[in-house]
Structure formats: C-alpha cells, structure tokens
Amino acid sequence: MRSLERGVSWELNDGRFGTDEQVDGGGWVDWTRDDGHRGSGVDIRMELLTYLPPPTISHFHTDGTSTHYLSHKVEIDSFSGYRIYPSRGRLFVRGDSKIFRFSTSKSESLFLQRKNPRKIAWTQVYRRMHKKGITEEVAKKRSRKTVKHQRGIVGADLAAIAERRNQTAQARLTLRTEALSKAKAEKKAKEAKKEKTKPATRAPAAAPRISKQQMKGGKGGR
Amino acid sequence: MQVIDNSGALLIECVNVLKQKVNNGWGSVGDEIVCVVKKARPVNAATSASAVKVRRGDVRRAVIVRTKKVVRRPDGRFIRFDDNAAVLLNNKREMLGTRIGGVVSADLRMKGWGKIVSLAPKVV
C-alpha cells in the first residue's frame, strides 16, 4: 500500500525507532506512530495496513527541500454533491476558469454530457429538490402565531376594560336603572327650581315654552 | 495551443519537447517546448509597448501552462483544463510577455516557474 512504500516511521514504546524495513514482523511489540496513534501487535506490518496514515501532499521547492502537507479539506462534487476526500476524483478547469470537481468518472461523464443534475435521481441536488430523506423538523415550516396582547388605551386602562367586560348582565341592569332614576331625579329638581324662579303670571302661554326650555335645559344639564 | 501572455502570438504549435536527454513524445505542464507561431496579433510598427513582438512563423520557446490531459498532483488528485495553453519564453527561460491572461496550473510552481505563477491572475 502507498503508505508503506513511503517508509512510514514510528517509535516503538521500548525506545527503538525505525521504519517498516528495519523492524521484523515476528515479535510482539507496542508502538506509537508519528501522529500519536498507538497500537500493539504481533505483525506490525499487518497492523499498519489497517491503519492508514493520513495522506500527505508534498510541495517541492526550487531549492530542493520539500514540505509535506495534509490535504485536509474535503471538497464536494460539483455534479452529484458527494464528498471528495483527498486523493480521489478529478478537477476540471473549464475555459472560463470555472472549477468543477468530480468524485467519480460517472459524475464527470454525466457533466460532460451536459446532463442536468436536478434530473438525475441519485444526486444531492435532486434529493434536496424533491425533499428526499429530510426529517420533518427541517422540512416543515414553523407556523407563525401572532400572540394578542391585552392593552389599555388612554382613557380606559386595562383594569377598567376588564371590569367592563366582566360585568354581569344583572350588574349592568342595576347600574343602568340607578343612573336613569338619578337622572330623573335631577331633572325634576331642575324643573322645580326653574318654576320657582319664574313668576306665576306667565304660566299658561309660557308654560309649554318654559317646559320645553326646561327640558332642553334639563337635557343640557344632564 | 493557445498563448496566454501578451507577447503577441495567439496560437502556437509545438515542434519539440525539451526534456533533458530524452526525446519524449509528449510534454506536460511545466515543460519547455520549442514551438512555431501559427497565429499572431498584427504587429503595429508605430505603437509597440514591448520591443519584442512575435510574428507568424517565428520559432520560439514556450512553457506549457495548461493541458487537456490530466496531470497528477502529489496528493493523488488529477487536474484537467479545457484547453492547452502556453507562455512564450526566450532562450534564457525568461518570459517574453509581461502579463498573463487566464488560469494557470499550480504544477508550474513545482517545476520551478514561480515567476509565471506569480504573474497569473488565477492559479489552480
């Protein structure tokens, strides 16, 4: 495998330091790899086969040295939406300098055939469009409820409104009759006062007029 | 292949690939080639920004900057462009043009063409 060919080096826990060529695969040893990965076993090479070290990319400089980087970034396929892990897939730069990444030759071929990924059922674009495999919490829109608040107005604060609303019919009735009787009493008092002030001679012809006036006055007074 | 600098040539045809010792059949990104200028921009005798203007039929050197054929990166990835392109050089590996228009492959840096990479507007 690629990793072993490059001569991965690791430190054995008993102090020995070596590459895969130097260590024999016979005995039982514990080992720690460069990146801290620890293990133990009989056949070291078999162990390493299962734990692939992370792939490195080397940048070669003109002065002969080279630095190795880990190509961490996992790209996404521009056609299917799959993840492209480092060292997989192809990168295509179109004439207009737009970059397309393909994870497989399948997606590359379909792209070059100018297929629309929205119509190809296995692509992420299609799935998102047709809402496949998305759970309810994501798909459903939360219904917006407008909460009504009880507010008081100038002239009738909350307490007054509540009072008015919660008045029973009986209470209302009694209040009304009280008010009525009160008004009547007031009116009568006013009339009596007016009659007293006006002289009696005027009585017959002026009576209806006065009474009307009184009424008007009474009404205005009330 | 296309020429993407402002040296005046538009289209060049590769005649020979210069690689040490070997007479290789093909050249890749970062390889020097000998080429013939097939198409060039009409040379204005009166107004010329740079003294050197390439003419049709000139035999020049160039370095390949883009290939349609995939190029493998050390991380295992393959890069492919939509066309083949090159930048003209003189015999001393210096650029003839002063500007580069278009994308350029980052493999150039690895082969030692840092100047071209730094001039390019976009490097992939």
Span of the ends, CA to CA of chain A: 107 Å
Radius of gyration of chain A: 48 Å
Overall structural class of chain B, as computed from helix and strand content, comes to: mainly beta
Count of runs of 4 or more consecutive helical residues of chain A: 8
Order of helices and strands of chain A: HEEEEHEEEEEEHHHHHH
Compute the number of strand runs of chain A: 10
Instruction: Going across the biggest sheet of chain A, name each strand in turn.
Output: 2-1-3-4
Indicate the overall shape of chain A.
rod-shaped
Query: Which percent range describes the beta-strand content of chain B?
Result: 35-45%
Largest sheet of chain B: 5 strands, mixed
Summarize model confidence as the mean pLDDT of chain B: 82
Q: Give the overall shape of chain B.
A: globular
Average residue-wise pLDDT of chain A: 69
Structural summary, described in words:
Chain A: Belongs to the eukaryotic ribosomal protein eL24 family. Chain A: Residues 200-209 have a biased composition (Low complexity). The complex is a heterodimer of chains A (222) and B (124). Chain A is an alpha+beta fold and 222 residues long. Chain A has helices spanning 2-5, 44-50, 105-112, 124-129, 136-139, 158-166, 169-197, 203-221, and strands at residues 9-12, 17-19, 29-33, 38-41, 56-60, 66-70, 75-76, 83-84, 90-93, 99-102. Chain A is 39% helix and 17% strand. In chain A, strand 7 (75-76) and strand 8 form a beta hairpin. In chain A, helix 7 runs antiparallel to helix 8 (203-221). Chain B is mainly beta and 124 residues long. Chain B is built from 2 helices and 9 strands; from the N terminus they run ββββββββααβ. In chain B, strand 5 and strand 6 (78-81) form a beta hairpin. Chain B is globular, with a radius of gyration of 14 Å. The two termini of chain B are 19 Å apart. Classes of the chains: A alpha+beta (222), B mainly beta (124). The interface between A and B is medium-sized, with 20 and 21 residues.
